[in-house]
Structures are given as C-alpha cells and as structure tokens.
Amino acid sequence: MPSIIIRNGRIIDPSQSLDEVSDLLIQDGKIAAIGTNLGTADEEVEAAGKIVSPGLVDAHVQLREPGFEEDETIESGTAAAINGGFTSIACLPNTSPTTDTQAQVQFIQQKASQADNCHVFVIACVSKNREGQELAEMGILTQAGAVAFSDAPHPLQKTDLFRRALEYSRMFDVPILDHPEIPELSQSGLMHSGAISMVLGLSGMHPDSEELATGRDLRLAETTGARLHLMDISTEGSVELIRRAKARGVNVSSEICIANLHLTDEVMRTFDSNYKVNPPLRSQNHIDACIAGLQDGTIDVITSGHAPRASEKKMTELDRAPFGMSQIEITLGLAITNLVVPGHLDFPTLIGKLSTNPAKALKLDKGTLSVGTAADVTIIDPKVTWKVDSNQFASLSTNTPFNELTLTGRAETVIVDGTIKLQR
Amino acid sequence: MKVTATDSAVDISPVPDTWQRRHLLGLEALSKDDILTLLHTAVELKAATGGCKDKLSILQGKTIANMFFENSTRTRNSFSLAARRLGADTVEFSASSSSLSKGETLIDTAKTIEAMNVDAMVVRHSTPGSPHLLSQNVSCSILNAGDGPHEHPTQGMLDIMTIFEQRGTLEGLTVAMVGDITYSRTARSNIWGLKKLGAHVIVCGPSTLVSKAWEDFGVEVSYSLDDIIPRCDVLNLLRIQFERQYTRPFPSVREYAFLYGMNRKRMEQAKDDILIMAPGPINRGVEITPDVADGPHSVILHQVTNGIAVRMAALYLTTSANQQA
Question: Where in chain A is the domain with CATH 2.30.40.10?
C-alpha cells in the first residue's frame, strides 16, 4: 500500500485537541506521524490553506437497501458519503426487510464491503420488524456487528418496551437511539405547527410532541443508566431539557440534522415537498436555540439525516410525499456556510460535531487522527465556493431543495484506510 | 372587447393591464387591485348575463376541465355553469372514476387532461398546495376550487361580492367569521380578501378551532359570539368540518350550538341591518337556526348566485391573461 504525505495543512483533531499547521504521514493504511520533517512518501498531497480533519462520521443515514433500491443502494449511498467527505456512516434499520436479524446485518456489511467506498456501521432495530412490540435479539445483533439500536425514523412509542430496551442494552454497552416524537401529538403533521401552518391550512407538528418524548427519554436514561442518543433534536424545549439532563450527569448524547439549522417553516409557503422533513423545519427561535445548544455542547452531533427518496415519490401531493432530503453530499458545505462563516462555530468545534463526537456517541474507533489508528482523513477546502448540482449527486435521489444554492467549503480529498477515495 | 351574447350584443370590459394572473390559487397572494378587478368583473358579468342566467360567448372555443379530487356538488356545478354561460366547453373529471384509483399520480393525470387541449383546470383537492403543484407542472390556467383547509378563493370572492352588493363597499365594515376557522378554507380566503378591501375581520369560535396567531395578521380573535354580535355588520357562519378533525375539538354539537349557534335570541342583539351569510352546506340547528337562515337578514341564496358570477369572472380573467402569473 503506497504511503501518503499530506503537507502544510491545518490539522484539526478534536480527539487530541490538536489544531496546528503541520504534515501528516500515512503508512500501511494507518496514521504514522504528525509533524514536520517527516520525509517523503509515495504520494504527496499539498494541503496549504486547507483543513486536514479526521474522516467525517455521519451517525444518521438511510441507505434504503434492501427493499427501496429506487431511492438508494448501499453502493450509491456510500459513494454519496465519500462525495460529501464522510468516511464512516451509520445506517438506519428502516429497510425491507428491516435490520432485525443477523443475516440482515451481514447483508449490509457484505454489500458495503463490495462497494468499497466508506465504512458502514449498522444500526439495528430495537424491536422486531420495527413494530415497537417485542425486543429484537440485541445480543446476537451486537455480535453480528450492530453498533447501536433504533427504530428510527419511527419513535419508540411504547414506554415499557423502551425502558426494557435501555435496561437490556446495558449488558452490551450499546447506545439506544430514539427519534423523540409522541405520534398522537403530531398525527398527520406535515410541517412545524405555528403561524405559517395555520395560514397554509397544513397540519402541524407541535414542539410538544418532540419535547414530551425528549423529557420521557431523558428520564428513562437517567433511571436505567443506559446510553441514550437522542436523534433529530429541533426545538428550544428539547435543547433545554438535554442541557439540564447533561448537567445532572445523564448518559446522553444528541444530534441535529443539518436542514433543521438552516431553514425555517416559512419555506413551506412554496408547498415544495422537498422541504418536508421530520422533524419539521421550525421557526427562527428554535434554530437559534439549537445553535446555542451546539455552541455549549448540549447538542453533540450534526448529521445529514440523509433520506433519499425517488422523485416519483416526492413529486406528489404534500401529504402523500415522504419525509426527507438527500443531504449527505451537501451537509459539510451547509454546515460551513451556515455555522462557520457567520461565526456560530469555529472549525475545531464543527469537526467535533461531524467526526469525533458522532464516533464517540456510537462508540466507534473513528473520528481521530491519533497515530496508529486507521487512516480515515478528510481534507476540507474551507474557502472554495461551489454551486449545488443535484444532477451530479452520487446519490440515486435528488430530493433536495438546495439545488443551485451556492455553498462555501467542501471536502477536496477523502482517504479511507489509507486509500484515496476522492480527489477533486 | 366586443362579444356576442345569445340574443344581443354586450360589451364586456377588456381585461385590465394590471391583471396578469394566469392562475387563481388564493386570495392571500392577490393585490387589492387584483381583488377589485375580480369583483368588478363579476359584477359586470352578472349584469351582462341578466343575473347569471343568459349566455355570452366570450369564452367560446375554450375548454375548462373540472378536476375534483374531493366531493363537491355546489362548487362543481357553479364552475360548470359559469364556464357554459360564457360559451366554453367543459370536461368533467372525478377522482373516483379516474386513473388515480389505478395508481396514476396527480401530475400525470393533470398532464393527460391538459393534452386534451384544455385552457383551464378547476381543481379541488383535500391537500393544501395541490393546485400550486399542478400550476408548476402544466401550462394551462389553474383555478383553486378549494385545497384542504388552505384557500377557496372563489368562495371568498363570492362572499365579498355579496357584501359589496348590499353595502356598496367593504371599507370600515366589521365582518365576523364564526365557527371552525382552523379547518376552513373559506375563512382563510375571506380573511385575506376582506382585509385587503379595508374591512375589520373577527374570527370567532371555540378556542380549539380559532388560533390566537390570527392576531399576528391583524385579525381580531374572539371566543364569545355574544360579545361580538352587537358590533358586526356581517356574520359569516361556517360549517364544522368534522371530516378534517382528528380529535373532536369540542364536547358536543349541542354545546357548540349553545355557544356559537345563531338563533332568534342572538339576532335581537345584532344591528338592524346585519347580514347573515353561510358558505354552506348549512347545518340547520347547529351553526344557524332555520328562522335565521330563512329570515330577512339572510343573503345565503344571493351567495350561491354570486358564486356563478365570481367564477365567470375568474375563468374569463385567468384564461385571457397573457402574462405568467
């Protein structure tokens, strides 16, 4: 395997509190050294003016295979991940069949290995067939390689099952991921509940739906001592609940999808189903609270919430169109443009949210440039401006409202296990 | 524009330059000028057709498709009559008997109908925004005949026209929409239209069906019909949209009628010249008692006639506009 030297980049590694202009040497697929005067290598990558980051980790991706290959396949989804700068992704179990057996976990691993793009970590179902009734075989699934458990995008509705799942998960020290939502309070909701939904006559999803579930989940995590990861945080109230729980020492991490940091419910006036996401795009006060939550560490992780959907599914009436955006290829650009450029977050913090923290939340041996670890590296050009062109997506789905948008910042080079997967 | 009516030549004003809308999707997006153009054209066409009875030929050679994806009798017939009174041909399309039940998408269905060379589609759909979706995917005019609880612009205009006929202006009048505001497209279209023409609008009903957020849009919010009756020039009594509600927002129809039903006793508190309106279908004994519905203040049947006038105006203006909306 050829060695690689990345020269003169700003090396940012939150796992080692590192932020310095230096060189990084990769040998035998591993990080060999960080420093100066590291000699030569088979391949030279000039990174002056660029950021050398641990490979980005996306904790919340829908890969859609098996069952929904019209939306995305494991091959196309992992190629999209590389295109977006992600070297590791964790995929949700909402496939068909669902990811609730050893065979399903192994199928995904095998397909990912054949695709040979990025690392794929499997999130398996909490409940059999994601029906929320009986626990899936968590022990066997963990053994097969599942790194976490979730019924997402469904919420864990039944509180007693959820409590048992948390108790049981402690034996394996695996996190339970919940999409906090009380369905009876968001029933048939298509957007954030507020003045805009009132004007448009669209059923709204009230913040109470998320916040009551968040409160319940935090309480259960506190009493069971299990590892809880709250997905899809989008409201002011949820941020405050998590902030207080963390202050009490509850074992919780949380994430937000990039779309929920950028757009308000105002865009629903277009009735464009590409804006239909769950959690819904909320009002500015919620966005501001979520940004504050990112700044003070209440929200640990930023995800793409990648939810590719074939155009025939989206080009329909708003209530028939599925939730979700094809996001993974533009998540980094959106994050730099909307969080770093306006000064909300600095690069080390952002890279923490996109790499080190998600790896930690899912207990993955990723998100670091420590010497001796596998060489997953993302080189980011923080200044380049580029225009989103969904026709160029590696993802099979182009359901994004961000087409034609100009973004700042992009992954220029992506290295997985010491192999260059992307070089712009 | 010189046009030939069935038995005599009638002059209809040309479409003013200020009107550039090929579609009529809602009243929220319309300017005051647009609303006045619609209103005055409707008044003119009503007169020119002897009260919406005679035929003109100003839309001769045009084809109007009625595409109703949700049940309707009155609006559908009103649009059909309006099209035929102006000399247009009509195509009737029903969701239940269509290819939608065979899995065809809304857009494909609309494109198929459009390929039959229609000039306008009148669309009713249970989902807000569906007419907007079609307007972006077909090239003919789209007229919204009700999209879920969002808008019903011709209903809003016919209510406005009915008040205008009785009072000569909307400026300074106090108009209350009573009942189920949350699920009412009629309420929304009325609110936008009335506000733009200078009326004071009150929304009144159970707190579960009347959002306080309407105050942000300059609308007065009240939960007590008895409190507002003495101030009102017009009461528009809306039907409860039971079919759209997930959890029933009030305990019983009896309690609703007790709190919000318009009856003889409440009429005693009203101004002498109050107008009683209802978009229908009315539920006698719920939002309105028969003596009020059929009483001297009721203009409910005028509303129905004016519906044809407003729809003639909407079809004429949208299909004659050259510019992109």
Answer: 4-51+375-423
Contact state of A318 with B128 under an 8 Å Cβ cutoff: yes
pLDDT in tens, B254-304: 999 999 999 999 999 999 999 999 998 888 989 999 999 999 999 999 999
- Burial of residue A103 (number of CB atoms within 10 Å: 0-12, 13-18, 19+): exposed
Q: Which of A212, A214, A206 is nearest to A189 (CA)?
A: A206
Question: Cα–Cα distance between B118 and B140 in angstroms, integer?
Answer: 7
SS3 A45: strand
Chain A: closest CA distance from residue B205 (Å): 15
User: Domain A56-361, what architecture?
Assistant: Alpha-Beta Barrel (3.20)
In 3D space, the residue among A318, A310, A305 whose CA is nearest the CA of residue A279 turns out to be A305
Cβ atoms of A153 and A179 closer than 8 Å: yes
Where do the domains of chain B lie, and which CATH numbers do they carry?
2-151+305-319 (3.40.50.1370), 153-304 (3.40.50.1370)
CA angle A210, A174, A374 (to 5 degrees): 110
DSSP 3-state of B9:
strand
- Predicted ipTM? 0.92
**Band of residue B233 on the pLDDT scale cut at 50, 70, 90:** very high
pTM of the full structure: 0.94
Q: Do B130 and A318 touch (CB under 8 A)?
A: yes
Residue ranges, comma separated, of all CATH 3.20.20.140 domains in chain A are: 56-361
Quote the mean pLDDT of chain B.
92
Residues of B annotated as part of the active site: 74-75, 102, 124, 152
Contact assignment for B106 to A316 by CB distance below 8 Å = yes
Architecture of domain A4-51+375-423: Roll (2.30)
What are A58-72's pLDDT values in tens digits? Answer: 999 999 999 999 999
